[in-house]
Design brief:
The chain is an alpha+beta fold. 36% of the residues lie in helices and 9% in strands.
Length: 148
């Protein structure tokens, strides 16, 4: 432990700069790490609290259960909502089916992996609708060309 110019101290401190640096891994077994207000109690079993947010260049989620991913949309047995069903749901609920409402997110927060899979599901469903509309459009073009 040092506060001088030692090349590789395990812990380095600078009281004048309110700085503590740890050389190597930083471990807090079974503890809660708080950055910012030390009096904040993080909800649930979370082990890291960062006041005012996190800025990073990259985030990688280490584990995604393939059963939770949205590829199931392409199964032949998948029950794709019709555009009419989606329209009705939106009129009644003011948000998309299978997507949490603003109130739900405000109350419960959101899980990044779950939300990414949810958004991917919406994109995949949209593509299925686009493909169907393209087929319908081609049929209509053929019908029109027969009339001419």
């Amino acid at each position: 432990i040092d506060n001088s110019d030692t090349d590789t101290p395990l812990i380095y401190g600078d009281f004048s700069g309110n700085l503590v640096a740890v050389h190597g891994d930083f471990l807090v077994p079974d503890g809660l790490v708080r950055i910012g207000d030390n009096n904040v109690t993080a909800p649930g079993n979370y082990k890291l609290y960062v006041q005012d947010g996190i800025l990073t260049e990259k985030v990688k989620i280490a584990e995604v259960n393939s059963a939770d991913w949205a590829d199931f949309v392409f199964d032949e047995e998948y029950d794709l909502n019709s555009t009419e069903e989606v329209e009705q749901f939106i009129k009644e609920n003011k948000h998309l089916p299978n997507v949490p409402s603003a109130n739900e997110v405000s109350e419960n927060g959101l899980d990044v992996v779950e939300m990414d899979a949810t958004l991917l599901r919406q994109i995949e469903e949209l593509w299925l609708h686009v493909i169907e509309l393209k087929k319908e459009n081609e049929l209509l073009k053929n019908e029109i060309s027969k009339i001419k």
